[in-house]
Fold each of these.
Amino acid sequence: LAPADIDAMVHVSDRAYAQWSNNQGRMLFTADVKPGRDDAINLGLFTPGDHLIAMGRAIALAGPWHVVDVCTDPSWQGQGIARRMLSELLSELRRRGDTQGVTLEVRVTNERALALYLAAGFIDRGRRPGYYTDNKEDAVVMWRAPQAVIEAGLADGWEPTL
């Protein structure tokens, strides 16, 4: 994704979530898609007509990568697009070196997303009470072991370090 895609990113995000105003999403997306930024990954899936239908985004924190968004336009949901987007995002993280694992937050009521992340090897590591500002809903904090740990068969006992 690039700065020229920000309007489309806001549109997809607004359709999929109710948590931000247009200005909040626009500010976050503008900061994340700056050219040359190597601490952010912004992937998009476009239709043949060049319409954005899904995005996967991650930023590097002080240590682990943080998945900030796996989002599919509601009219395209239920077709495995989020699974594909997450897979592509994790592949890119692996190429960049996910040596300290990957983390994310997801709404406690978002059962489809929770199932997606669990199937991708994320584990439930706790809650952030009142994390979402629109309704004070809790977030589930999830972690995924580094790919090298998973491939070595050691993910069961892995603990994130901060």
Amino acid sequence: KPQTDDMREAPALVIIQHLLDAGAEVAAYDPVAMEETKRRIGDAITFCNSMYEAVNEADALFLVTEWKEFRIPDFEKMRALMRHPVIFDGRNIYEPQEMMKNGFDYFGIGIQPHIQS
């Protein structure tokens, strides 16, 4: 939930569990809720100190909480750090055409996927 550490019914917890069940390695970052997330999930995932640390060598980014610092990241830096520049935007905070221009495959909620050719 944006701007809070309230993890009750947080979609991130469900998504993380599904990714873990599928065998994914998960690295997570939240500016406020890291301690609460650690309490709920334990050491099943890697907890990061920044959004850039979380995307380092990532195959994809799942954006599930709308924080102000996530709105205008350094997309060039993100793309360079990621193994595969793929964004699943659960909040539709990014413009699909802008993501394509920045070299990302982009999947938003209720919109057509935008995939690099």
Amino acid sequence: MKDNDELIKTLKRLFWDDRFKEQTDLNITRKLLMLNFSFIACTFFLIPFGILSLYEKAYLIGVFDLLTFFFIAIARFYYVKTFNYKFLTYLIIDLLGIYFLFLVYSGGANYSGPLWSYIFPVTVMFMLGRKVGRNYVVVFLVLVTLI
């Protein structure tokens, strides 16, 4: 019975971790809320778009969507167990950067890929702050220009 309760608590924490309420630092609380939102958004966008791309025979895009979600889900499991939010933050930002670069390169589904890359700077600035986020955005912009 105790194992079942722990399993239910872990599964609940996978999608919405309320341990951010224990933090007194507003900056950390903001990052933890953004991580919760990012995982939910990745779940509801990457899985359906990956399946849709596979159905439309765009196998490269579909597999890349599902692999990106898979790696983010593994990192989220790690976060739930260890509460290491910094690792999850940088991993999500790095994976999303690679994913959006791929969408710019491939065009995405129905050539809507470049439009998705506009959310990258906002997400980075919000999760990493202005100083570190600015560096990520500049590198992303240079790489998009090279593509």
